Amino acid sequence: MIFELDKKVLLYWRFTAAVLFAAVFSALWIAVPDRYTVKILSSLVLLAVATAYCFVYLPLRFKAESVSVSGGRIICRKGALIKREYIYPNARLVYAQTVRLPLASCFGLYVTVLRGVGHSLILPALTLKQQTKFLKAVREDE
Questions:
Q1: Helix H or strand E segment including 6
Q2: Any bridge partners for residue 72, and if so which?
Q3: What is the CA radius of gyration of the chain?
Q4: What percent of the chain has pLDDT over 90?
Q5: What does the alpha-carbon distance between residue 12 and residue 16 come to, in Å, rounded to a whole number?
Q6: Contact 127, 8 (CB under 8 A)
Q7: What is the dihedral of CA 42, 43, 48, 54, to 10 degrees?
Q8: How many Å apart are CA 66 and CA 97, to the nearest integer?
Q9: What are the domain boundaries of the chain?
């Protein structure tokens, strides 16, 4: 069973990126004293990077990420430019922890942390309905 990410995840990523770029922009204007040409040029470059990140990279990442449960294992695909695939056997799973991050909970998203023998795996943010189905599929697939 494949669990695709909800549209809220893309909105959540864009909001966190906007907060981050706003903090960098504010620090830029405070740190550079009385050099308005440097401030303006740096701001334009930062705006171009932020726009490319939010409207080019994040949609690519959104399409590339997924979580699936099949054949006694959990497969997590991540990354847009550097693609990674994590295969986590259900037999090594000790417990699954649900984490509500403050900003993600504003969008109704939950993060699942799978803890097992040897290491842990953090899954992408899912809605409560998707996470419930995911945890049920993991229990049934064992």
A1: none
A2: none
A3: 19
A4: 39
A5: 6
A6: yes
A7: 130
A8: 18
A9: 2-63
Whole-prediction pTM: 0.84
Give tens-digit pLDDT for 94-111: 888 888 888 888 999 999
Largest CA distance in the chain: 64
The answer to whether 95 touches 113, Cβ cutoff 8 Å, is: no
**Beta carbons within 8 Å of 91's beta carbon, 6+ residues apart:** 72, 142
Rounded-to-integer distance, Cα 138 and Cα 92, Å: 12
Alpha-carbon torsion (120, 1, 11, 17), positive or negative: positive
The pLDDT of residue 18 is: 94
CA atoms of 32 and 61, how far apart (whole Å): 33
Top-confidence residue, 32 or 115: 115
The residue with tokens 């990140």 is 53
Q: Is the pLDDT of residue 46 over 90?
A: yes
- Rounded Cα distance between 75 and 71, Å, is 10
Residues in the chain: 142
Q: According to the model, what pLDDT value does residue 142 have?
A: 66
